[in-house]
Structures are given as C-alpha cells and as structure tokens.
Amino acid sequence: MIIRLFQESDAEQIALLFHQTVREINIRDYTSNQVKAWAPDNIYFTNWAKVCANKFTYVAENEGVIAGFGQLEGNGHIDCFYCHKDYQRMGIGKQIYQAIETKASQLKLHRLYVEASITAKPFFSHLGFQTVQQQEVECRGETFINYAMEKQL
Fold it and tell me: Tell me, what is one Gene Ontology molecular-function annotation carried by this entry (predicted)?
C-alpha cells in the first residue's frame, strides 16, 4: 500500500469508490433515500478530477487499486474521506490521515476540522477529534445528521 497525492487518472476510480462506499457502507447509518441523495446514480458526471486537484488529495493505492482517499484544504478542513468498501478496517484510513496531518504540520496549521458522518464519527474520535456539535445538513432534498469535529495539533 502506498499513500500518494492524487493524479488525474485516479478520478474515475475515486468516483466509483465514493459511490460504492456511500451506498454499501453508509447505508448502515442512513436511509436508502439519504444515501441515494448523497451518492446519486449520476455521480459519475461530477468532475472528480477538478474536485480532487484543487485540494491536497491523498490516495491509498494497492497494486493499481485505489483503496481510499482523503482531502485536506489549506485552512485545515478535511473534506472527502472514504475507504473502499472492500478495504474497511485495515488501517488504510489511518495511513491517509497520517499523510494529511503531516501536510497540516508543514502548512503550520494548528487545527483540523471535519463534518463526520454517523459512520465516520468513531474513526475520527479514535484519531483524537472532539465533537463540537451534532448538526443537520441538507443534500438534494434529504436531511442528514453529521458531526462537526475538530482536533488541535
């Protein structure tokens, strides 16, 4: 497993990873309608190459297969952070997070923050993030619970 920065050729695998993970993993904590709004069937039309190129996007690659990815913005916000449905609970998310925290240190950031799903909250808690508040967000007509979380560096 290698952790590296995003390359444009990763975009299609990342789109599929996102879609499958939300549909098959996050369904444990959200309704069918919620996950369909979060990861609609037309998700492949989203310009993932542009979304990933405009952030520090770290990719976990295993013999040509993208096993996970996570994004850091220059202000300390962790945006998308997903592990492939077939690579859950294998330490890949922690490796991606370590790359993000290393970059945050290089950027001299003092805080990281994220809006974690119900599914991702235990992962971020394990990494030392504290819950700031539970919140309701809307996406494509569906309301979701997630958690504003932060970690002081």
Answer: acyltransferase activity, transferring groups other than amino-acyl groups
H, E, C per residue of the chain: CEEEECCHHHHHHHHHHHHHHHHHCHHHCCCHHHHHHHCCHHHHHCCHHHHHHCCEEEEEEECCEEEEEEEECCCCEEEEEEECHHHCCCCHHHHHHHHHHHHHHHCCCCEEEEEEECCCHHHHHHCCCEEEEEEEEEECCEEEEEEEEEEEC
Q: How far lies 147's CA from each of 65, 115, 133, 152, in Å?
A: 30, 5, 6, 16
Does the domain made of 2-112 have the CATH classification 3.40.630.30?
Answer: yes
Give the global pTM. Answer: 0.91
